[in-house]
Amino acid sequence: MTYDEFVGQVQHRARLASIGEAVAAIRATLETLAERLAGNAALKLAGQLPQEIGEYLQKPYSGARESFSLQEFFERVTEREHADRPDAVYHARVVMEVLSEAVSGGEIQKVLAQLPDEFSTLFESGSVGAPR
């Protein structure tokens, strides 16, 4: 998937008005995900994405693995995106849906293996489902 396709899919599915809003949602979600992953998991994930998208997973804190809940994940995304919480949660779900389509299923399984079970709803609910 190309950069334009990734951003376009997020913009379309999340019903965002601009490319800039889509990029903000992608950046907020992936930077927060990188904080939660240990070792080189974020770098491996980034390697399967367009460089402009993958860079959000390669921040200096990547690999440090902070332990936080799904609710804290959403709080961090909300703060980074400068959005209302319901919107930020929905945008994060959309980003994860597109991310899951852009990389191999095996890589997503490795990411999920590092996260508490509650995070599976983030990946499963997508743009049309309701979080469980």
What topology emerges from the helices and strands here?
Blueprint: H1 3-13, H2 19-36, H3 41-46, H4 51-54, H5 70-81, H6 85-102, H7 105-114, H8 120-125
Helix pairs in contact: 1-2, 1-6, 2-5, 2-6, 5-6
In words, what does this structure look like?
It is a single chain. The chain has 132 residues and is mostly helical. It has a single domain (3-123), classed as Orthogonal Bundle (Globin-like). Helix content is 64%, strand content 0%. It has 8 helices and no strands. The protein has helices spanning 3-13, 19-36, 41-46, 51-54, 70-81, 85-102, 105-114, 120-125. α1 crosses α2 and α2 runs antiparallel to α5. The protein is globular.
The CATH architecture would be Orthogonal Bundle
Sheet with the most strands?
A: none
The amount of helix comes to 55-70%
CATH H-level homologous superfamily name: Uncharacterized conserved protein DUF2267
CATH level 1 name: Mainly Alpha
Radius of gyration: 13 Å
Give average pLDDT, whole number: 91
| Helical segment count | 8
- Total beta strand runs: 0
Shape annotation: globular
Alpha-carbon distance between the two ends = 28 Å
CATH topology value: Globin-like
Give the SSE string. Answer: HHHHHHHH
Structural class: mainly alpha
What oligomerization state is this entry in? single chain
What distinguishing features does this structure have?
Globin-like, 8 helices, 132 residues, globular, mainly alpha
Question: Summed up, what is this model?
Answer:
This protein has 132 residues and is mainly α. The chain has one domain (3-123): Orthogonal Bundle (Globin-like), CATH 1.10.490.110.
